[in-house]
Amino acid sequence: MCKGVRWCTLQLSILCCFQVFQGQLDRLAVSAIQALTAVMLKSPAAKEVFKERIGYAHIFEVLKSMGQPSRELLEELMNMAVEGDHTSVGILGISNVQPLLLLIQWLPELESPDLQVFISNWLKRICCINRQSRATCVNTNMVIRIIETLGGHSLLHGTCAENLIALLGSLGSQSMSSEELHQLIRLLRTTDPKQAHPYVVPVMRAILTMARKQGLDNALQYFDLSHSMAGIAVPSIQRWPGSAFSFSAWLCLDQEQVSPSAYSKGGKRKQLYRYIGMEEAGGIC
Q1: What are 218-271's pLDDT values in tens digits?
Q2: Taking the CB of residue 56, how many other CB atoms lie within 10 A of it?
Q3: CB 169 within 8 A of CB 207
């Protein structure tokens, strides 16, 4: 696994060492991203190895050194994020959030307004599918990355900036720290106090989105048990206080994003609780 990740990264790195036509360079980069995606497919361990030992920052620098990216290359990064077809928004969820952060960082450097709008609109959709997607993005500091990207507003198409701010509002409704809010407000400062920043109106809309109640009441603190091996373990009870017991819990059942092939393998079996007694007798719910 580790050797495969290193080989894919080496393949990307050597692209910068040869003078080839731009079209050939793009095709080589697309092939390398496809290979890297295949190596890390459905493997949290492989993703962690790549992130810690090589890093997406290195990939970003290599890709940037190749010049303006093609739409095909950007779409391949989108495919890497969902580990499938990026057009299947609603069927596929976020499997690897790191390419999304890379795309957000790349937006101001894209010379094509159409590509900026295309990428930002897709980001707004994929990151806000459900609570789990929003939590994943928030936990990887996507809010700060968006604010940093919006700092280069002179390089962003207006629609692209509005898409990013709308995404910011959706993520902020999930969670936003005081430091993130402070940086967002500071973003609206201008050198001329008489001239309003072009982001004032969309940012105010985003703040209203954050403050607006969305659906049912939500817990401020919760456990994310979406991973197949996630759970809460408590110490075993040596002696039960009586002949029965009861417990209560609030559950939030978000729609799970799975690949179409998963349905052919049968449904997943989820356990609400499981206990085993002293004589290996117990129950599962």
Answers
A1: 666 677 776 666 777 777 767 767 777 677 777 776 655 554 444 445 556 667
A2: 16
A3: yes
